[in-house]
Amino acid sequence: SPVKNLQGLRITITAGPTREAIDPVRYISNHSSGKMGFALAQAAAAMGAEVTLISGPVQLTTPAGVTRIDVQSAEQMHQAALSAAVQSDIFIGCAAVADYRVAEIAADKLKKGAEAEMQLTLVKNPDIIAAVAALPQQRPFTVGFAAETRNVLEYARQKLLNKRLDMICANDVSASDRGFNSDDNALSVIWRGGELDLPKAPKQKLATQLITLISEHYKN
Ligand code: C5P
User: Fold this and answer.
1) Which residues does the record give as CTP binding sites (predicted)?
2) Is 84 exposed, middle or buried (0-12, 13-18, 19+ CB in 10 A)?
3) What percentage of residues in the chain have a pLDDT greater than 70?
């Protein structure tokens, strides 16, 4: 039977990609499947936590006992995340948020012109996890992810400090047998006082290990 030692703990998790509209029929997005975030939600709920899962568009079913909030864009995820974060003990940002959105979403479908090139102006999206970690009050214990293709640990350590996170989980997405879209992953978890490698395993197993590690650090 599942360990139920997280009762009373409120955990908010973001998962999946965001979708940034260009016009009524087109968008900019990425290859995030949402599997890691959903695995974390499943693990946390199975251990007795009260879980809110804020998800971009994914093809996954909601784990049992989890409250799911569906969003499309980074701005929508930002709003939902901040509302949930101030009522949470732990916030885990697992979503692959689009760094930029289209400056002005066209009201009508853009038509193909005579020109060989066209340009879109993009503007920066809010950094959701940095906003959560910067909350002056009701700031949850904040855990981020860093998907990198090179200098994985170095970039992750920088993000831990720059975004003022409590913990960051670094994964190498250059290998096709883990990370994006894969059922397996491997993580290096870093906090201010140390780090721990969680070797390649199915995302569901890693999720249980990670939720256990996070809840231990939250308590200290
Ligand atoms: O800077 P980078 O996108 O690599 O940081 C990844 C971490 O930051 C992840 O935890 C991701 O969910 C979070 N993030 C965010 N809002 C953004 C960009 C990233 O919450 N706009």
Assistant:
1) 93-95, 99, 109, 126-129, 145, 159, 163
2) buried
3) 95
Q: Which two tokens stand for residue 140?
A: 């949850």
Question: 145 CA distance to ligand 1 centroid (A)?
Answer: 7
pLDDT in tens, 106-141: 999 999 989 999 999 999 999 999 999 999 999 999
Q: 66 near 45, Cβ under 8 Å?
A: yes
- On whether 129 is known to bind a ligand per the annotation, the reply is yes
Q: Which sequence positions are flagged as catalytic?
A: 30
Taking only the tens place, the pLDDT of each residue in 15-46 is: 999 999 999 999 999 999 999 999 999 999 99
- In whole numbers, what is the pLDDT of the chain averaged over residues? 94
ipTM of the complex: 0.96
Output the residue whose Cα is nearest ligand 1's atom 21.
Answer: 127
Residue from 105, 101, 91, 102 nearest 37 by CA = 91
pTM for the model stands at 0.95
Q: How remote is the CA of residue 93 from the centroid of ligand 1, in Å?
A: 7
> Strand 20-23 relative to strand 141-148: parallel, antiparallel, unpaired?
unpaired
Q: Report the atom number in ligand 1 closest to the C-alpha of 94.
A: 12
Contacts of 153 (CB under 8 A, 6+ apart): 170, 188, 190, 195
Cα gap 183→91, rounded to integer Å: 23
Check pocket membership of 146 for ligand 1, CB cut-off 6 A.
yes
What confidence category does residue 48 fall into, taking pLDDT thresholds of 50, 70 and 90?
very high
